[in-house]
Amino acid sequence: MTTPHNTAKFGEIAKTVLMPGDPLRAKYIAETYLENPVQFNNIRNMFGYTGTYKGKQISVMGSGMGMASIGIYSYELYKFYDVENIIRIGSAGAYTEELNLHDIVLVDSAWSQSTFAKTQAGVEGDIQYPNELLTNKIEDTAKQINIPIIKGRIHSSDVFYYESSVPNYVDFYNDHKCICTEMESYALFHNAKVLGKKAACLVTIGDSLVTHEELSAEARETSFDKMMNLALEACL
Ligand SMILES: O=P(O)(O)O[C@H]1O[C@H](CO)[C@@H](O)[C@H]1O
Ligand SMILES: O=c1cc[nH]c(=O)[nH]1
């Protein structure tokens, strides 16, 4: 079957999907790393591809920005396409000087003010967790292939631009122990949990709220090769 947002037919999407926010990052991964990639979706330019990596069938698809968007795409992948694992491969903003541009963070929990889980399934609580097995697999793979990662809690936010009248990154770091921020993992982890599936999240630091350094849009699209390699190797 197809959905209003995805034209793939059942069976055209692999059991494991790598999911960047940026659909052009998905295109880059498919064209750079997958053998024989076949595009299964272009509705709303939310590109999705299936190919093989070292003989293993893998899909990669953009999620768009924010929980509403990844909420739709990840739900459909799990529920209607029988996807088992989604690994988000995102960009994030650092909340601490200890994180530098291009550092890779493996998310061990996502804190959020979002009402996504409560609205979607009546689930209370401001922290969602990734699947432990999948996260351990990524951590073990990182050790094996010698890619440094930092494990930590992420702030999964509904907001990118804040006014100065509300709490800022210093509060999120001090009060909630979040080391960086992005906008999707809380909803992804929730969807995986309610549907009995697995999700994990890797992010690469693309900017710093502390130092105000930032990578260009193009770099966020095409320079996260270490994280892409790690995610692909963890799928094997
Ligand atoms: O680079 P992606 O994966 O989109 O992730 C981050 O970048 C976007 C904001 O610029 C948000 O989607 C945020 O989560
Ligand atoms: O969601 C995001 C991603 C990168 N940087 C931010 O400040 N927020």
From TrEMBL:
Give the enzyme's EC designation.
2.4.2.3
One Pfam family per UniProt: PNP_UDP_1
Which catalysed reactions does the entry list for this protein?
uridine + phosphate = alpha-D-ribose 1-phosphate + uracil
Q: What family name appears in the similarity comment? A: Belongs to the PNP/UDP phosphorylase family.
- Taxonomically, the superkingdom here is Bacteria
Query: Which PROSITE patterns does the entry link to?
Result: PNP_UDP_1 (PS01232)
Organism source for this protein? Gottfriedia endophytica
Q: Does the keyword Aminoacyl-tRNA synthetase apply?
A: no
PANTHER family recorded for this chain?
FI09636P-RELATED (PTHR43691:SF11), URIDINE PHOSPHORYLASE (PTHR43691)
Any one Gene Ontology MF annotation carried by this entry is: purine-nucleoside phosphorylase activity
Q: Where is the Nucleoside phosphorylase domain?
A: 16-225
Alphabetically ordered keywords of this record: Glycosyltransferase, Transferase
Q: Which GO terms describe its biological process?
A: purine nucleoside catabolic process
InterPro entries reported for this sequence: DeoD-type, Nucleoside_phosphorylase_CS, Nucleoside_phosphorylase_d, Nucleoside_phosphorylase_sf
Can you name a GO cellular component term?
A: cytosol
Name of the protein in question: Uridine phosphorylase
